[in-house]
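Page 42, continued from yesterday. The earlier attempt failed because a stray header line got pasted into the input along with the sequence. Redoing it now with the clean sequence only.
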Amino acid sequence: MNSHKPVNALIPGLGQRSIKTALSTAILALLYLPFGENPTFACIGVIFGMGNGMEDSKKSGGNRLVGTIIGGLLGIGIFWIEHWIFPKGNYYLRVVLIFFGVILLVCASVIFKWPGAVQPGGVVLCIILFNTPADHVDYAFGRMFDTAIGVIFAIAVNAFFTRERVDKWLKREAAAENVE
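This time it went through. Structure tokens are written below.
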């Protein structure tokens, strides 16, 4: 486990990861503004994707991205099955299908060697089945795309603003303050 102490933290526990996560989320939300798109899932991707270091970012961001893809694809398939059998939908069938969907989600996550993808995949699966607009396919692919953007953005920020690089900048600032 990566243990670290926030450098120059005025607020307990507020360190580099917290600042990078908050800043990345805000910047990504601003980048979505001109397109008139909702940044929610991209921002969630940033929050899941920002780790203590690159390996942690790849693991947690990968869990979110792979889970979103598996859950999204399963959601599309299950939604299609339900509406093939009952064109106007049927809640009771959906309940039975979510049971099998979660089983498939767990199996697929293990097969793809991403067991951490189960939780985010389950969230997406439930959203698609129980809280999705009529065009579930566009919705699902939109969530996959937005999540990918968020995770990639978090990993890029973490790659550029490495712990060592930021520590170096902060130590330089602290040294400059001590000289004055």
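Notes: The two ends are 38 Å apart (CA to CA).
Reminder to self: strip header lines before submitting.
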